[in-house]
Amino acid sequence: MRSDWFILLLVLFFFISCDHDATHDSRKAFRYNESQGISTLDPAYTKSLGLLRATAQLYNGLLQLNDSLRVIPCIAKRWRISDNGKRYTFILRQDVFFHDHPFFPNGKGRRVVASDFSYSFNRIIDPRVASPGSWIFNSLNKSAEGFQNGFRAVNDTVFEIALKNSFPPFQGILTMPYCYVVPHEIVERYGNDFGHHPVGTGPFRCKLWIDGEKLIFVRNEKYFEKDTNGLSIPYLDAVAITFINDLQSEFLQFLKGNLDFLSGVSSTSKDELITRMGELNPKYESSIKMYTRPYLNTVYLGFFAEPAIAITGNSPVYNERVRKAINYGMDRKKIIKFLRNNIGMPANSGFVPKGLPSYSEMKVKGYDYDPDKARQLLAEAGYPMGKGLQPISLVTTVLGVEICEYIQQELSQIGIKINIEVNTGASFFDLISNSKAAFFYNGWIADYADAENYLSLFYSKNFSPGGPNDFHFKDTTFDRLYIKAMNTEIDSVRYKYYQLMDHIIIDKAAVVPLFYDEVVCFTHRNIENFQVNSQNQFNLKYVIKH
Question: Domains of the chain by range and CATH?
């Protein structure tokens, strides 16, 4: 019997370990749960938040974001941009090494060089890899002389990228996990299974992966970054991830102290952990810390703006006055107060959310709750008190039903009848991207920390299904400002263009911004230096556990 168990353990460790040593000091292990599971740790496929959080512990890129979402050096110790904004030159550190692995000579991780970035980036755009992040390099000048697909390793420490046109948000794109560096010899040995045998340069390295049960990272003793006192990081010995898919069980494990971190609030934990005012329940103040910050997520109602090709009939939302009446006809503060326990902020400004530098309540005025103004606009549109106005279909998924039902009730008071159509995720996105929904409930979470990521949804050359402009919104002044912004390297000037563009979106009532979301998470009080940014991502390299 003892022999059978020993063989079973050997098989488990050999086939499902990231390498063969699974020891770790649990006293200094940061433990969190990923309820949606983790399917891969290959940066090329890092699309969901859970994958983003995990891969951030294992890999690095040229650049990184600090907690304020400012782009700062990482493997590139410095960089410069040509005067025309089309050429980026990165000078690499010489003390960055891949994690040790048996496939390296003598099992020791080798130094990262510029050609590793050429390999990693070309891999992202390789159709055979089919990375969902291939779009991030759409701005490359793939025919630039001396470059391969827009990339060039000048020598071991100098790496260059050529763009077709100036694109200031490109620095932010380079901080995305798709741009993490990977070692070609390990990727090529594992092939499609590299995602289960990850090797990066990050503060932690993968030790054990039992699919569907646990994932363990341990401290990278050779990590190159230091703290402000010149001491080695990370401070933790390990990171332990579980995959409990029941949110109630996850919440109870956190309360028991078996998890160090809890992300967000669900229906099972909302009323227990936080008050109706959105604050931590006083009974937990001595044992739990609550973290909040603006989340780069705008939740909105969208309108399709091109009736000539629509298959949705002569919807009333093609009338600008009706769209404005809808904007004025609901109290966004009630959504936050009664449906979200005061988590988030009413979207009484533009489409660009709070948390980005260009956001300004003063320069981009949105819509306040004004039912009298809404009724006036309906009358001007030819529908006094809603008379003659056909019911408007609002397309959503099950996740948006509660808020859509509130909107339905609010708008009925000014004479606008709303029919709610609930769809599954796949059919919902098909309706929107293929111009089959005139009015829909949706949200946009930033891919990278620049307002351009939001404003590009309204640029006329980005019409869906080929681009993100599901609204088919088109405005010549907006397009002209967009081009100006993309040719401006001075942040303060570009932000002014962004604000003008956001003002146009609001003035034309292209959308109904409902609320700007908020990151909410919790740790126990024995955790120090934990930080979560406005993209709801974290890096654990500075965390201390007592």
Answer: 27-240+526-545 (3.40.190.10), 295-518 (3.10.105.10)
What tens digit of pLDDT does each residue of 102-130 get? 999 999 999 999 999 999 999 999 999 99
Q: pLDDT at residue 473 above 60?
A: yes
Contact criterion met (CB below 8 Å) for 82 and 203: no
| CB crowding 117-129: b at 16 or more within 10 Å, else e | bbbbbebbbeeeb
Strands (E), 164-280: 204-210, 214-219, 238-242, 261-263
Q: How far apart are CA 472 and CA 459, in angstroms?
A: 9
Q: Give φ, ψ of 179 to 5 degrees.
A: -95, 10
Q: What is the pLDDT of residues 318-342, one digit of tens each?
A: 999 999 999 999 999 999 999 988 9
Nearest to 49 by CA among 522, 520, 445: 445
| Interval 72-105: pLDDT, tens | 999 999 999 999 999 999 999 999 999 999 999 9
Residue 230 sits at φ, ψ, to 5 deg, of 80, 10
387 to each of 326, 370, 378, how far by Cα in Å? 15, 19, 9
- Residue 13 has what pLDDT? 46
Euclidean distance between CA atoms 140 and 85, whole angstroms: 12
Tell whether the model's pLDDT for residue 19 goes beyond 90. no
Cβ pair 19, 207 in contact under 8 A: yes
pTM: 0.89
Q: Nearest 5°: phi and psi at 24?
A: -160, 155
Using CA atoms, how far apart are residues 53 and 539, in angstroms rounded to an integer? Answer: 7
Whether residue 353 is preceded by a cis peptide bond, meaning omega within 30 degrees of 0, is: no
